[in-house]
Amino acid sequence: MTSSFSQLSLAPTLLQAVAEMGYEHMTPIQAQAIPVVLTGQDVMGAAQTGTGKTAAFSLPLLQRLMRHENSSASPARHPVRALVLLPTRELADQVAQQIAQYAKHTKLRSTVVFGGMDMKPQTIELKKGVEVLVATPGRLLDHIEAKNAILHQVEYVVLDEADRMLDIGFLPDLQRILSHLPKERTTLLFSATFSTEIKRLAASYLQNPVTIEVARPNATANTVEQRFYSAHDDDKRRAICTVLQERGIRQAFIFSNSKLGCARLTRALERDGYKAAALHGDKSQDERLKALEAFKQGAVDLLVCTDVAARGLDIKDVPAVFNYDVPFNAEDYVHRIGRTGRAGASGLAVTLVAASDSKLVADIEKLIKSKITVESLALPQSRSSRLRPVGHEAAPAASSGYESRHSARPARAARPARMASRDPFFDQPYQPPSQSQTASWDSHSVATPASVARLSKPKRKLPALFQPISAEAVVSSDS
Ligand code: AMP
């Protein structure tokens, strides 16, 4: 199979952009998908973010749009030809940035629209005319209704992270959007898994799709000690400080599910005397790289990040990873804990489980094929010197110099390009989790500890994680 981009029939302008991104070889999903998308066939691809899937669909898509390339200033000469739909603003922004990078030497235009932002600047961009429109479903419908987005000349539609779009409940929005598109088009659907719902979606909107699946990375001998502790939201920070203190751990990654949560936690940890820095989508690439370098140099001890911001960062060997929030997506759990316990080093992954997280933990249990026990963690009654950072003077509110304020989103034009990842994950094939596999909680009748039962109200079956099982859940990391 071809592994070099130069062997593909891509325009020199696209190849130049790829070279400038520093990509040397195609990732497995790229090697499989690019030649197929270049033929114009529908594709159903099983791949998750972090596998290089954005380039896998956008490079051939841009190539096919090259015949429409023109330098006219007239918006009419730049109708939307390709639509890329994603579930979240972060992902939409990330994908749009990548597409803009790949298209930067062409005359093809692209833009992104997502909710939570003023519609006016987006409208101005749309009215100028763009060939590639990246969008979240809700905001796109707003623009369709306002007649800012005219989609009758769309030739390609990409449903990216389709499983997450369905999870969020975007199916009706997707159906409405797709009803505005010409029937004659190429549809590409990417999803981490091919669930029954995804297959149903594909059956309704794809025509004879070519199925592309890349295998999951092979498990290695590296092991991570995984701990799940029940914790109220108010106690989570103390829980982290306690584990750091008790285990004598100085440096760690802490994952939060939201940018705001990430910023707040960083501030609070700084107040506790830790050298902490935030890595989230509102930080520029420059700020992220500085924080990363500071972490590598030991000037920062705790990097508090969101999944999107941490993805593609070249840090893998941290002593511990904390999940301040249980990830919404079980696959993210595997990515998060894969940051620790590498290269033979022992790693610790601690997940703090709130009462409402039982479904998310059950999803992880199903994915990692290992029973999870949620333990309780004894916390000191008050904030005492016991919780002071390891290896540092107990100076009050030591500041890392990395401000964790929830800054305003920088202007898109001011954002530097994302760096190419050097994660060895790309060297390994990805294998989607087996759908037929039954979660351990499906086959057990379970006992619920009083503390958890009081807080959670599971509607149906209770996951095995609430069983008093003593075995520790240990699985291999992803490289
Ligand atoms: P994606 O899965 O598309 O979100 O890509 C994740 C990261 O991998 C992005 O930062 C890309 O710039 C990077 N990437 C994509 N393709 C390659 C490649 N062939 N070689 C190295 N890095 C890549």
Structure overview:
With 479 residues, this protein is of the alpha/beta class. The chain has two domains: 209 residues, P-loop containing nucleotide triphosphate hydrolases (Rossmann fold), CATH 3.40.50.300; 166 residues, P-loop containing nucleotide triphosphate hydrolases (Rossmann fold, 3-Layer(aba) Sandwich), CATH 3.40.50. The chain is 33% helix and 14% strand. The protein has 16 helices and 15 strands. The strands form two sheets. Strands 8, 9, 10, 11, 12, 13, 14 and 15 form an eight-stranded mixed beta sheet that branches. The chain is elongated, with a radius of gyration of 23 Å. The chain starts with 11 loop residues before the first helix and ends with a strand. The C terminus is likely disordered. Adenosine monophosphate binds next to α3. Adenosine monophosphate (AMP) binds next to α3.
Unreliable runs? 217-222, 392-479
Tell me the overall shape.
elongated
CATH architecture title of the largest domain? 3-Layer(aba) Sandwich
Helix content: 25-40%
Main sheet specs = 8 strands, mixed
What Rg, in angstroms, do the CA atoms define?
23 Å
Give the beta-strand count: 15
**CATH domain topology of the largest domain:** Rossmann fold
Top CATH class of the largest domain: Alpha Beta
Structural class: alpha/beta
